[in-house]
Every structure is written in C-alpha cells, then in structure tokens.
C-alpha cells in the first residue's frame, strides 16, 4: 500500500492536469479529462515501480501542456501536443496500443464532426 504522502501527490497531480485541461478547446478538454480519469483509476493499485513511471510521465505531460497553453505560446504556435516517438510503440503492451488507437479515433472523430458542420436550413423551420 502507498503512504498518505504518495496519495496526496497523486491527487495534486490529477487536479493539476484537470486545471491545465481548462485551456484546451472544449472537445479536447472532454477527451483529456475522461482519459486522465480512466488512467488514474486504472493505475490506482499498481506496484511502486509502475507508480513511479506513471507519475513521472503524467507530470511531464502536465508540464508540457501547461507550457503549450500559455497565451504567448498559443499566439506563436497555435498547436497543442507533441508527436509520439515511434520507438515508444515498441515498449507498449497490446492493451496500450488498443487504447492509443481508440484515443486517436475519438480525437479524429471530433475534428471530422467539426469540419462537416452544415449550415442550418432556415427555410424549413417554422
């Protein structure tokens, strides 16, 4: 079991991630919040070695996203996120690859729906 200090750090990190997600567009925020919540729940009872890796990676994510969503960076780059290093795929389990694919599909579906919005036909409205 983990001590209360560890539990406190996990909660602080989780809250930080949700706070950083507030700077994202609404559709990305929903995806990000849901993904983070599921990942934190999924790793609730992991072993200490996995917990250290998990916290390190999510801390890096929070730091990078916070830097990218600063107003000055947004004005310069207008891009959020980083490309995944293809070598990381070699270290992922089959479940992680499936989860990554599902996340990609959900994110792609959101952007497709935004680009396919049709104007409202005002002639058929009463």
TrEMBL record:
Entry keyword annotation includes Chaperone: yes
Pfam families: Complex1_LYR_2
Cell location: Mitochondrion matrix
Signal peptide region: none
GO biological process: mitochondrial respiratory chain complex II assembly; succinate metabolic process
Keyword Transit peptide attributed: yes
UniProt-listed InterPro entries: SDHAF3/Sdh7
Main location: mitochondrion
Keyword list, A-Z: Chaperone, Mitochondrion, Transit peptide
Gene Ontology CC terms: mitochondrial intermembrane space; mitochondrial matrix
Superkingdom in the source lineage: Eukaryota
Region (Disordered): 104-126
Family: Belongs to the complex I LYR family. SDHAF3 subfamily.
Subunit: Interacts with the iron-sulfur protein subunit within the SDH catalytic dimer.
Function: Plays an essential role in the assembly of succinate dehydrogenase (SDH), an enzyme complex (also referred to as respiratory complex II) that is a component of both the tricarboxylic acid (TCA) cycle and the mitochondrial electron transport chain, and which couples the oxidation of succinate to fumarate with the reduction of ubiquinone (coenzyme Q) to ubiquinol. Promotes maturation of the iron-sulfur protein subunit of the SDH catalytic dimer, protecting it from the deleterious effects of oxidants. May act together with SDHAF1.
Name of the protein in its database record: Succinate dehydrogenase assembly factor 3
């Amino acid at each position: 079991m983990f001590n209360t200090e560890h539990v406190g750090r996990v909660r602080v990190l989780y809250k930080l991630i949700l706070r950083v997600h507030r700077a994202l567009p609404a559709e990305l925020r929903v995806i990000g919040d849901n993904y983070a919540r599921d990942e934190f729940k999924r790793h609730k009872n992991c072993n200490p070695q996995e917990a250290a890796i998990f916290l390190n990676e999510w801390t890096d994510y929070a730091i990078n996203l916070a830097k990218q969503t600063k107003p000055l960076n947004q004005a310069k780059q207008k891009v959020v996120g980083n490309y995944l290093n293809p070598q990381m795929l070699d270290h992922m389990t089959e479940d992680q690859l499936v989860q990554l694919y599902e996340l990609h599909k959900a994110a792609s579906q959101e952007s497709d729906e935004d680009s396919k919005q049709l104007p409202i036909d005002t002639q058929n409205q009463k």
